[in-house]
Design brief:
Number of helices: 3
Number of domains: 2
Structural class: mainly beta
Low-confidence stretches: 1-25
Number of strands: 31
Length: 415
């Protein structure tokens, strides 16, 4: 079971990527968290309200147009709402987040222990709903995920779910979209469980599983698709040996000697040339209040990047390609990774106005033409359609204010 968490993390990331693409292909109406005076609602980017501004904070979800609304009491505790498009489906809940998987919503709350969100495998409680806000199962799960990487179109009438029960056992079941119920059970409360070659699912078109049932019998199972339905394509058993991890692929560990390579000497630079200001996002995983901005510094590798100066102004020089990538005309240059997105770049300040220079992982520059009076941070890249981004704005103390678009239009009005 040593590799289970790693493999499940890979699965979750794959699922998010696939469903983000699906959501973008459908091109739904763009809706955004819009602040009116002191409260947030849901509106079009132009400010036409679809959900009344009654929330202290609305957080963007993993999929466009699915939001979590927060309200806080005087003691700092929160209640949340699930907002899908312009409908408030659930409200006054103890869930800290709602995670969308095609026809299902996973609603998550902490139970005990130190947690840091749905993807952390911390002690949590997960309830499953459909897109109309109806609860699918009355059971609360410790963990749940949709196994949905067998095809590109995802037009199937069924979903395959992997779930961990609160007693630590595992199940794999089918959810029927038409009936809104769990139907076939492939694995029922196994006491030990592992996915085999999970990263190859898209190519093999089969889910390969090994598990141990309550009577200590080992089972091997493959699940594939037939006429868009999930079916068993292979089933077998194996004997469970005591004191041996059956899921280890290697019995012997061979130490690989380090290969000494001669590294070229680092270029001679001044401390100021390689001291970069960095912006980080600090999330509140206890009270689930809006994230804050924090400022740090880091040392650049002078073989790749360094700061360049013209008087009091500064820019960035790409040493490896011998080119200036940020002209030295700015009062401040902040490096950031835009966590939670697939982009990185710089936040630039000039004459109390901020702009953003952002690149995708492939190095393509993403258009962000806006200028901002408040500190901007890209929270969602390619929101609904390409080159449409959602920007979070912060005050000089790093406190979240409201949202804006890539052209500098703020989703806010005084009243």
């Amino acid at each position: 079971m040593n590799n289970l968490k790693t493999r499940l993390t890979t699965l979750v990331i794959t699922i998010i990527f696939v469903f983000t693409l699906v959501a973008q292909k459908e091109t739904p109406q763009i809706l955004v968290p819009y602040k009116v005076a002191d409260h947030f609602g849901i509106a079009t980017p132009e400010g036409k309200m679809k959900v009344k501004p009654t929330f202290d904070y609305i957080e963007l979800g993993d999929i466009p147009n699915i939001f979590t609304g927060f309200n806080y009491n005087e003691n700092g505790a929160y209640k949340t709402a699930l907002i899908v498009n312009d409908n408030v489906l659930l409200k006054d809940q103890d869930y800290f987040g709602y995670y969308h998987y095609d026809a299902l919503i996973f609603a998550v709350k902490h139970t005990s222990g130190k947690g840091s969100g749905y993807y952390s495998f911390s002690p949590e409680a997960i309830d499953i709903y459909d897109l109309k806000g109806k609860r699918i199962s009355q059971e609360t799960y410790k963990y749940a995920s949709v196994i949905n990487d067998l095809d590109k179109n995802n037009n199937r009438p069924e979903e395959l779910l992997y779930m961990m029960h609160t007693d630590g056992t595992y199940s794999v079941v089918v959810y029927d979209k038409k009936s809104g119920k769990f139907t076939t059970t492939f694995v029922d409360r196994a006491k030990d469980f592992d996915f085999i070659e999970l990263d190859m699912v898209f190519y093999t078109k089969a889910i390969h599983i090994k598990y141990i049932d309550a009577s200590n019998q080992g089972h091997e199972l493959k699940i594939g698709l037939k006429n868009q339905k999930f079916v068993k394509t292979f089933e077998g058993t194996f004997t469970v040996e005591k004191n041996k991890n059956l899921y280890d692929y290697y019995d012997d560990i061979v130490e690989v000697p380090e290969i000494e390579t001669e590294r070229p000497p680092a270029p001679k630079v001044t401390k100021s040339e390689i001291t970069m200001d960095v912006i980080e996002i600090s999330k509140d995983y206890k009270g689930y209040r809006p994230s804050t901005i924090k400022f740090e510094t880091k040392q650049l590798d002078p073989r790749y990047f360094k700061l360049v100066f013209e008087g009091e102004k500064r820019g960035v020089y790409y040493v490896k390609k011998e080119q200036t990538i940020v002209e030295p005309v700015y009062d401040a240059v902040y490096s950031t990774s835009f966590r939670g997105t697939t982009a990185s770049g710089y936040i630039l300040k000039k004459d109390e106005v901020y702009t953003i220079k952002m690149q995708s992982l492939r190095g393509e520059e993403l258009p962000l033409n806006g200028s901002f009076r408040h500190l901007p941070y890209v929270s969602y890249v390619n929101y609904v359609v390409p080159n449409t981004h959602i920007v979070s704005l912060y005050d000089t103390d790093g406190k979240f204010l409201y949202y804006a678009d890539q052209d500098g239009n703020v989703f806010y009005r005084e009243k």
